[in-house]
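User: Please predict the structure of the protein below. I'd like the answer in structure-token form so I can feed it into my own downstream comparison script.

Assistant: Understood. Taking the following sequence of 133 residues as input:
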Amino acid sequence: MSGGWAAKDFCEAGVKTLVLERGRHVEHGEDYIGENKDPWNMKFRDKVDQKLADDRYPRQKKCYAFKDSTKHFFVDDIEHPYSTEKGNNFEWIRGNQLGGRSLLWHRQSYRWSDMDFSSNARDGYGTDWPVRY
């Protein structure tokens, strides 16, 4: 969503723009395994096998949307590792498919409050957001 929106703005501003997606095409309906199914009607209530999650998805499993029916949208952390500086952990939730990370947040995007835009001033860390309501 954010990459597509940026591309839209660039195109409208007259900038020649090329959008590339890393990964496969996601087929609506076919690739949404748990769509229109209640968790209690799915195997293990849509929970990922704990050993598989621990072994293959140690970072991705921390996302609230990481479920048995959605795990195919998440990157296997063992096949595609990344590193951070010691003491500077960053949990990067990743997916390689058409639609990017928007499929990893269950297509939910919540409105930010004034507190979200000014949290760096309270925390004393980071850069101020250039926008406000």
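That's the full token string. The mean pLDDT is 89.
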